[in-house]
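Bug report (template v2)

What were you trying to do?
Predict the complex of my protein with thymidine-5'-diphosphate.

What happened?
Run completed; filing so the output is reviewed.

Input:
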Amino acid sequence: MKIEYIPLQVHGDERGSLIALEETKNIPFNIKRIYYMFNTQQGIRRGFHAHKELIQVAISVKGSCKFLLDDGIDKVNITLDDPALGVLINPMVWHEMYEYSEDCVLMVIASDSYDESDYIRNYEDFIKLV
Ligand code: TYD
């Protein structure tokens, strides 16, 4: 499957770095929700779901973690370790996150509110639907 990365412009000067996220500009949808994962324990794997409609962009703003992305045909593993690079998680892409560094802060920008009915949490159901 094709991985869609979103390079984010860094506004840097002698004081440090700044990245701005703006809906419909570098984030390709209207932003409805932002959440972030931190203090993730060693050896933890999370995610294990796909969304029916939700579009998300994940950014490791600190540290690193890995993603398994699976569109039901291909599985791709990627490392996110750059605060200036987002990855798009389209609907109907099964994803799992793992190997979080101790300092990892994984931020996710989402196109809609939290809605449990948009989740597909069973892999066999996911494969039937794709
Ligand atoms: P969960 O779906 O288990 O996280 P993941 O799939 O990434 O491993 O979510 C953990 C808890 O947080 C669960 O009780 C639902 C809640 N939650 C919200 O309330 N709002 C949100 O936006 C998200 C993503 C989760």
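What did the reviewer find?
The chain has a mean pLDDT of 98. Residues 5-129 form a domain with the Jelly Rolls fold (CATH 2.60.120.10).
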